[in-house]
């Protein structure tokens, strides 16, 4: 497996759910300071990953996540990145929430598991920055 450079984002993140017909709240469309925001709509829900401070008031949410971003851009032909990260974290007993963008992959782990996650990733040979 290719060794990755991974950045730990400094803020607390949340995973939130709104009704499928909800309008995307304005603060999520232009977040400050380069924050990671992901909005996904299906016929069943509007799912949001965002800094905890931006969670919409009417959303059901799970807070206390930290985001780890693989430095990219990553070619679409690369295989096994999320598989490797998830298996390394699973072996350390760390649950994750993953998402991908055009350029890279992101993994969220609970704040209480961050130290274990960083240790596991470093032991697997990855460079982890920002902690």
From TrEMBL:
Entry protein name: Aspartate kinase
Source taxon at top rank: Bacteria
Source species of the chain: Saccharomonospora amisosensis
Bilayer-spanning residue ranges: 74-99
Domain CASTOR ACT: 61-122
Matching InterPro entries: A9CJY8-like_N, ACT-like_dom_sf, CASTOR_ACT_dom, CASTOR_mTORC1, UCP008459
The entry's keywords: Membrane, Transmembrane, Transmembrane helix
Domain A9CJY8-like N-terminal: 11-57
